[in-house]
Design goal:
Length: about 250
């Protein structure tokens, strides 16, 4: 039974992403009063329908999942570095998209191909930069990275994503057919560096040696600095100190 559920969960996830990909519609929008965006419509069909699973509200899994896929649900004033126009935005930490609310109240998202553009939230001292990085398949993808430190040599970023957990409600003997339970959860913060404003983000290791290895000619000095100051490269305040030190070398 456990093996069956595990395989079913994998299939469910695959189907979810496939259904979402083909159900979303995108329309180019050009305006002198808004950043470059494409219209984003959340599918309202149930992506699990092919497996015979439905829910009472007839909404997609993303809509009925517990928790939130956003950094903050509320749209807040933001600007993009190529324009002084103020618009309403929020970060979707599940889809890794920057959603905006247009004047007609439709939801769009900023064109992620605008590499190295910065989106700044006016009241939160929070700025994201669009950078290229390697995914788990070693393919280059573009995403949003929150700026912690920007320098000419090494810049530091944090990435906070959400994951969607899908499971089955526990019922005796699995009869009647159990309901699908979905929940958004925070993932561990990951830290990235960018060298010389290249637009390419490199994921930092969670070990002292792994961090120092990125700076081959200075790795022994950096390892010693981390050791002498008893710093943990998994803690934000400590990794900031390390990057500040590296920028002085």
């Amino acid at each position: 039974m456990k093996s069956f559920l595990k395989k079913s969960s994998v299939y469910v996830l695959a189907l979810l992403f496939t259904a979402a990909a083909f159900s979303q519609q995108t329309v180019n929008i050009t305006s002198t009063h808004a950043p470059s965006v494409v219209l984003f419509l959340v599918p309202h069909n149930n992506p699990l329908f092919a497996l015979g699973y439905t829910n009472d509200t007839n909404k997609s899994i993303l809509e009925v999942a517990d928790g939130s896929q956003f950094h903050e649900e509320e749209f807040k004033d933001a600007t993009i570095s190529s324009s002084k126009t103020v618009f309403k935005a929020r970060y979707n930490a599940y889809l890794d998209e920057m959603e905006i609310k247009r004047q007609d109240d439709k939801i769009g998202y900023i064109n992620k191909n605008l590499k190295k553009e910065k989106i700044s939230f006016q009241t939160e001292n929070r700025t994201y930069k669009i950078l290229e990085t390697d995914n788990y398949n070693k393919k280059r993808i573009l995403g949003y990275f929150e700026i912690l430190k920007e320098n000419d040599y090494v810049s530091l970023y944090r990435k906070d994503l959400k994951q969607l957990n899908i499971g089955l409600e526990k019922t005796p003997y699995m009869i009647p057919a159990p309901k699908i339970i979905t929940e958004f959860r925070d993932t561990k913060s990951e830290f990235y560096v960018e060298f010389k404003q290249s637009g390419h983000a490199i994921k930092l290791s969670r070990t002292r040696g792994g961090v120092a290895k990125l700076f081959e000619e200075k790795k022994e000095i950096i390892k010693q600095y981390i050791k002498d100051n008893n710093l943990k490269v998994t803690k934000e305040e400590d990794i900031i100190k390390v990057i500040d030190y590296i920028n002085t070398l």
